[in-house]
Design goal:
The protein is about 50% helix and about 10% strand. It is an alpha+beta fold. It folds into three domains: about 1-165, Up-down Bundle (Butyryl-CoA Dehydrogenase, subunit A, domain 3), CATH 1.20.140; about 170-300, Aminopeptidase (3-Layer(aba) Sandwich), CATH 3.40.630; about 305-465, Aminopeptidase, CATH 3.40.630.150.
């Protein structure tokens, strides 16, 4: 694939360079060949494909040299100038309402079609245009949200990219120690769940026989992974990430029976909102089932990145707004242990005094997954939404599963297993899609506790605000992740 794509890119570069010399002199005024808005208007002028390739290439070249102010003006041009004519849309809508048929419906669709979509389609004619457009969207997403008109630009761009990056164009490739170094460097850089600490750490995740890594690629983004998943083949379902990352996951002399998806990382910020993970997991499951016949169980070992933040808000709420959260006086007392810097060490030693903390956190986590919902009646946890939406089942909540600084800060050490039971995936997916039903094991459901009859969180707020890792949550910048 890389050789063919490289040849095609060189061919397109040659076409663009030769076409640029053939551009008519009257197309631009003095100095307008370097003017971003003039080039944008020329691109929309309806000239031939050859001229379009040259103009698109020149426009991308100018954008690469543009100042932040010039790029901001470019986005404003897209928002203000390239939009459907409201008068034409109104007339087409009236025609359809008066005579609703296929012809008037087609006329309405044409009138409402955004010129921005056509603009980006033509811009994509340039060699390397797809990568540049993805980068433009990354920049657009990082722009201040003060201008509502930019949301329309992003909506058009996301819709186009969803077509360009649909599953039919994606290629799954296994990443191993023989993969070109340029791609391996990006795997290290893009890992968003468990940091890869250099080449030795990467080799531990790729080279052993019980490890796998797969990624999706797109022909227009050469050597740029879109998303990748790391897998450990084990004899049992793991309940902690440390052994998976630090040592061989498989038990000596035992054939692996479980495939554990322990890290899924999105790589391209500019493709935010376009999900590839569901396709990747399903294809990886199929491939692993063929290659390793002893595998019977497919599970994740997933982080709970928003649990601590949710608990912060819950503990800081007053009784009127937290009436549906099962936090009793003894729970608040148990959470006081988090003020002790030795609590993790004591818990790892199974000290009796940490048992109430374990019971409280795992019970609150069960409530977090099964009962806490967002406005769309879906779980508040983004990783849960991803796996449950794919048809997985919440299998187990794991205590002290990730005692890294990040794991303690984000989830007080908790991780969870989501299980992909092949016979139940479709049923679970349909139930979740229709009414937000969370498929969960009996063990997880048994950890739910009834709501206390009386409680007052207000009196506990001053003490709880002082708990390290409860309220003072440090924000870490990382690539997007799915679980």
């Amino acid at each position: 694939m890389p050789m063919n794509v490289s040849f095609l890119q060189e061919l397109m570069n040659t076409v663009a360079e030769q076409s640029r010399a053939l551009l008519p002199r009257g197309l631009f005024g003095p100095g307008e060949e370097e003017d971003i808005e003039a080039l944008s208007r020329a691109l929309m002028s309806g000239r031939g494909e050859a001229s379009g390739v040259a103009i698109a290439r020149q426009l991308l070249h100018c954008l690469s040299k543009a100042t932040p102010e010039e790029r901001s003006a470019f986005f404003s041009y897209l928002a203000d100038e390239l939009q459907p004519d409201p008068i034409v849309v109104t007339e087409a809508a009236k025609a359809y309402l008066a005579t609703p048929n296929e012809q008037t419906l087609l006329g309405l669709r044409r009138a409402a079609y955004s010129p921005r979509r056509e603009f980006f389609r033509r811009l994509n004619l340039a060699p390397g245009g797809t990568a540049e457009i993805v980068a433009l969207r990354r920049e657009l997403l990082r722009a201040p949200k003060t201008d509502a008109s930019l949301a329309a630009v992003d909506a058009d761009l996301q819709s186009l990219l969803a077509y360009w990056f649909n599953r039919g164009f994606l290629v799954m490739r296994r990443i191993d120690w023989q993969t070109p170094a340029a791609i391996l460097e990006k795997i290290i850089a893009y890992e968003a769940v468990h940091e890869i600490k250099g080449w030795d750490d990467l080799r531990r995740r790729l080279d052993p026989a019980d490890r796998r890594c797969f990624a999706f690629f797109h022909p227009s983004l050469v050597d740029e992974p879109l998303i990748f998943v790391e897998v450990a083949l084990t004899a049992d379902i793991p309940d902690a990430i440390g052994p998976v990352l630090q040592a061989r996951a498989g038990a000596a002399g035992k054939a692996p029976t479980a495939a554990v998806f322990y890290s899924i990382s999105n790589c391209q910020d500019g493709l935010k909102g376009i999900s590839f993970g569901n396709f990747l997991i399903k294809q990886v499951v199929e491939e692993l089932a063929r290659d390793v016949p002893t595998l019977k169980t497919f599970v994740t070992l997933s982080p709970v990145p928003h649990f601590a933040r949710w608990l912060d808000r819950t503990l800081a709420a007053d009784a009127a707004t937290a009436h549906d959260i099962p936090i009793a006086a003894e729970d608040r007392a148990a959470l006081q242990q988090l003020r002790d810097p030795r609590w993790v060490e004591l818990a790892q030693q199974a000290a009796p005094e940490t048992e109430p903390l374990k019971a409280t956190l795992t019970s609150l986590a069960a409530h977090y997954f099964l009962s806490a919902k967002s406005s769309d009646n879906r779980p508040v946890d983004p990783v849960a939404r991803f796996h449950l939406g794919n048809g997985a089942r919440l299998e187990r909540i794991n205590w002290l599963a990730d005692v890294s600084e990040k794991g303690l800060r984000e989830a007080h050490g908790l991780m969870v297993n989501y299980r992909y039971e092949l016979a139940d995936i479709e049923k679970n997916h349909e139930a979740y899609a229709q009414d937000g039903t969370v498929a969960a094991s009996r063990g997880v459901r048994s950890q739910l506790r009834p709501l206390p009859k009386t409680k007052s969180l207000t009196s506990a707020v001053p003490d709880l605000l002082a708990l390290p890792g409860i309220v003072k949550t440090k924000k870490v910048s990382a690539a997007p992740r799915e679980g």
